[in-house]
């Protein structure tokens, strides 16, 4: 009996230790990511982690040039726009088809845009400039805008402008415009299609050999959901995954020493900043807000918290986005100046509260540094950590003094910063989270966003930026570098700051 | 017969308990400041979009009405739709519950399969080296934080030694077995896919151990102390005087009489393991309920939160019932 038991136990261990490892071959790219998909419906999702899977499965009228924020023709071969910038006419490339053979034509474009607008979720805001879509002939579509909108063509390269097969309507239930079905399936004409999605575990994107733009080099991309950074790091080191997303900064030095791993860093458009509630007594005085900006040790935060993986912001528009003003004033730590400004404003015993959430791992440290920095200038800063939904609610209602926030643009246009952050119509969560109001700034940015002449737009934005730096409605901290560690045999990856967390799977290959 | 009636009566008690749970959880979770409509709409959504979502999800209705809607759905077996992914919560539970259940059961098997023999061993070899080693092992288990233990296990057995696989339920290129129960080990066995079974078993070892360690340690200590208590009693001396072998005395007479506290703690730990698997699931990328409920809380996805809580309460109640029934079998003087 005893012997039998021993044999069984040893047998089990033998089986386990020799358990066959099914590793991915060169035709399969495995990406380890931190978050599962919520929905696959391009008309519903406002989440980069969903777009990672959605984007390669669909085509759009225009696409970003590789690694650039400029757009080039994609499903649209060419386009023209009328004098005042309100009517856009696109001629659509022939020969693009969905999986069931339905052609991607003017009707499909009309269907897709109208569906997104009708569903009315986040993506509808992205293409919200559209008033109506008209089919001129099978391959010509005309889009009329509500008002002239400078960034319009840029918005057509976003995930929100994905063109889905009109036949999805056969899956419609209770008038949901097939939302239930498209949340779990893809039906686009892009280079990939969803082959499997096991919730909480993985999604498999399968390359289409007959894609009109040429087939991808890999046969499939497997996205593994692994919520723990250390877990992704170890899997990358063992070669179980090829790319690891969102690795915590403190784990990078060890990864960089691994000879099989390359740690790539790219300047992103993701910025972190502090909302100063301009409506709160004390903080309604620009001198006090200036004092806060002068009290912060920007270099210290970038050096110690980000370990150098960030760049201090210069004004609201980040580096790499057109409209970024290279010679704009930038705050540097100057405690005596901060003290002088506070004295002048009669606010020498200022006590403030900073709210923040755990959405970004660095915030706890940054909050503590801000507390110490402000103390040097004689400001008492209380820290209050809260759950993200609670924090967002407080921000929307203006129930806060200072709040740590992050922002990334949905399309490559400075209006994503200038108009969202400063237009007094956008108070609260929609963008103007400092409840800032300046009529001159409102005029300048509202004018700029309707123009199509880039030079003129920059000029107006520049004037607005000068005023903003004087009035200091936010503390502009830094723009983050995106870090993409991958195995050295992964080739062809191109980072695009507009496609954060999205991969150019169709160009990636493994040596 | 009496016991059957008892079980039936206890099962009936489940209903008011669950109803109480729904009321508590519903109103407490709605007390969290925050607006689910905003969370659904996305970070930069306009006010119209938020209002439209509030209306279409019925979030603009007064709370008591929302609660009544939930309960009337519940009696029809409908837990509502997740406001995060628009899917019936029942479907979500079907996806995520089996993984947690599998992990919990595996951890339970480890708890009992390792904890009880260790406890007996420690009691028999009281104050000898084995006892001391067991004590160190137990103290370590009770005092080690799960997230640290999990990472260390992965670091040692996966990254450095390569003996065991990393996170996840299967290797990346292995197809999940056809779904009967949703538990991969069981499903693979039922489908006769031996390689998949071995792979799934191989993958569950580390997370199961990580999850079980605390309770394994507690069970070891409890078995030890209750065994020591029993071994000192008169009937054991009598058994020894009658010349029974030590193995029979320990395993048959002493062990059975020391089981009641063990069963109590086992029942409790099952519920705890299931509700407390969140950290283990996060570290080992185990797609269970823990991760699901954390996401639900972060999105203020009330139907998701309710579904999870109901499920865990149900398991708690059922396990407690089972424990009470087992008492009667272990100790014939207990009557219901």
Task: Provide a compact summary of the structure.
Chain A has 511 residues and is an alpha+beta fold. Chain A has helices at residues 2-17, 48-54, 106-119, 122-126, 152-155, 179-182, 229-238, 252-256, 286-295, 298-305, 335-344, 363-376, 388-397, 415-422, 439-450, 454-471, and strands spanning 28-33, 62-64, 71-73, 76-81, 87-92, 130-137, 140-145, 192-198, 202-207, 220-225, 243-244, 261-276, 310-312, 351-356, 380-385, 402-407, 474-487, 490-491, 509-510.
Identify the notable features of this structure and list them briefly.
heterodimer; A: 5-stranded mixed sheet; 16 helices; 22% strand; B: 336 residues; MetI-like fold; 15 helices
Description:
The complex is a heterodimer of chains A (511) and B (336). Chain A is of the alpha+beta class and 511 residues long. Helix content of chain A is 30%, strand content 22%. Chain A has a 6-stranded mixed beta sheet, with helices on both faces. In chain A, strand 4 (76-81) and strand 5 (87-92) form a beta hairpin. The model of chain A has no long low-confidence stretch (mean pLDDT 92). Chain B has one domain (95-330): Orthogonal Bundle (MetI-like fold), CATH 1.10.3720.10. In chain B, helix 5 (89-124) runs antiparallel to helix 12. The model of chain B has no long low-confidence stretch (mean pLDDT 88). Chains A and B meet through helix 1, helix 4, strand 10, helix 7 and helix 13 of A and helix 2, helix 3, helix 5, helix 7 and helix 9 of B.
């Amino acid at each position: 009996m005893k012997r039998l038991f021993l044999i069984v136990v040893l047998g089990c261990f033998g089986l386990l230790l020799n358990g066959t490892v099914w590793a991915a071959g060169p035709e399969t790219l495995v990406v380890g990511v931190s978050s599962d998909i919520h929905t696959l419906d391009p008309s519903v999702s406002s989440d980069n982690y969903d777009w990672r899977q959605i984007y390669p499965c669909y085509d759009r009228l225009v696409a970003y040039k590789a690694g650039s924020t400029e757009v080039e023709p994609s499903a649209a071969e060419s386009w023209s726009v009328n004098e005042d910038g309100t009517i856009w006419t696109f001629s659509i490339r022939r020969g693009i088809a969905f999986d069931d053979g339905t052609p991607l034509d003017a009707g499909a474009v009309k269907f897709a845009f109208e569906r997104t607008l009708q569903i009315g979720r986040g993506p509808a805001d992205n293409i919200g400039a559209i008033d109506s879509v008209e089919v001129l002939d099978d391959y010509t579509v005309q889009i009329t805008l509500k008002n002239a909108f400078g960034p319009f063509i840029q918005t057509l390269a976003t995930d929100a402008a994905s063109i889905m097969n009109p036949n999805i309507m056969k899956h419609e239930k209770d008038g949901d415009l097939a939302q239930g079905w498209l949340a779990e399936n893809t039906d686009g004409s892009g280079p990939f299609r969803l082959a499997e999605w096991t919730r909480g575990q993985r999604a498999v994107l399968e390359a289409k050999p007959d894609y009109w733009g040429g087939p991808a080099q890999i046969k499939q991309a497997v996205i593994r959901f692994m919520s723990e950074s250390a877990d992704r790091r170890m899997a990358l080191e063992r070669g179980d995954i090829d790319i690891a997303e969102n690795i915590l900064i403190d784990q990078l030095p060890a990864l960089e020493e691994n000879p099989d791993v390359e740690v790539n860093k790219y300047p992103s458009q993701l910025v972190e900043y502090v909302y100063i509630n301009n409506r709160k007594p004390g903080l309604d005085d620009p001198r006090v807000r200036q004092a806060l900006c002068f009290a912060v040790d920007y270099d210290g935060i970038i050096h110690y918290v980000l370990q150098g993986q960030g760049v201090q912001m210069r004004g609201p528009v980040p580096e790499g986005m057109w409209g970024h003003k290279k010679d704009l004033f930038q705050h540097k730590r100057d405690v005596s100046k901060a003290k002088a400004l506070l004295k002048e404003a009669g606010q020498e015993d200022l006590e403030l509260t900073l709210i923040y959430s755990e959405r970004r791992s660095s915030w706890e440290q940054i909050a503590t540094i801000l507390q110490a920095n402000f103390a040097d200038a004689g400001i008492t800063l209380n820290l209050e950590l809260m759950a993200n939904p609670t924090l967002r609610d407080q921000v929307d209602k203006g129930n806060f003094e200072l709040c740590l926030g992050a922002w990334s643009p949905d399309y490559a246009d400075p209006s994503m910063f200038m108009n969202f952050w400063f237009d007094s119509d956008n108070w609260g969560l929609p963008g103007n989270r400092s409840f800032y109001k300046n009529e001159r700034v409102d005029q300048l940015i509202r004018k700029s966003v309707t123009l199509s002449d880039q030079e003129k737009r920059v000029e107006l934005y520049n004037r607005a930026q000068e005023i903003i730096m004087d009035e200091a409605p936010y503390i502009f901290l830094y723009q983050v570098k995106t870090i993409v560690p991958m195995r050295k045999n992964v080739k062809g990856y191109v980072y695009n700051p507009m496609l954060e967390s999205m991969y150019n799977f169709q160009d990636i290959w493994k040596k | 017969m009496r016991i059957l009636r008892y079980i039936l009566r206890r099962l009936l008690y489940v209903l008011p308990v669950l109803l109480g749970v729904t009321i508590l959880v519903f109103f407490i979770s709605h007390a969290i400041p925050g607006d689910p409509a905003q969370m659904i709409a996305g970070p930069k959504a306009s006010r119209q979009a938020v209002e439209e979502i509030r209306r279409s999800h019925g979030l603009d209705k007064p709370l008591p009405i929302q609660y009544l809607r939930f309960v009337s759905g519940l009696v029809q077996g409908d837990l509502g739709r997740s406001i995060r992914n628009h899917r019936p919560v029942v479907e979500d539970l079907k996806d995520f519950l089996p993984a947690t259940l599998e992990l919990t059961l595996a951890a339970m098997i480890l708890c009992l399969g390792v904890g009880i023999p260790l406890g007996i061993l420690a009691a028999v070899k009281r104050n000898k080296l084995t006892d001391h080693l067991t004590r160190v092992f137990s103290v370590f288990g009770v005092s080690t934080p799960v997230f640290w233990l999990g990472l260390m296990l992965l670091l040692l057995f996966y990254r450095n030694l390569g003996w065991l696989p990393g996170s996840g339920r299967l290797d990346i290129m292995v197809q999940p077995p056809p779904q009967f129960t949703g538990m991969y080990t069981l499903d693979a066995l039922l489908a006769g896919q031996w390689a998949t079974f071995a792979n799934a078993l191989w993958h569950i070892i580390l997370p199961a151990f990580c999850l079980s360690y605390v309770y394994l340690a507690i069970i070891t200590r409890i078995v030890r102390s209750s065994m020591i208590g029993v071994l000192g009693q008169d009937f054991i001396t009598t058994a020894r005087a009658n010349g029974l072998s030590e193995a029979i005395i320990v395993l048959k007479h002493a062990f059975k009489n020391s089981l009641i506290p063990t069963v109590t703690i086992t029942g409790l730990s099952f519920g705890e393991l299931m509700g407390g698997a969140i950290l283990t699931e996060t570290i080992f990328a185990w797609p269970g309920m823990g991760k699901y409920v954390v996401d639900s809380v972060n999105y203020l996805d009330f139907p998701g939160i309710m579904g999870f809580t109901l499920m865990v309460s149900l398991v708690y109640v059922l396990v407690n019932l089972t424990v009470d029934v087992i008492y009667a079998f272990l100790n014939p003087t207990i009557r219901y």
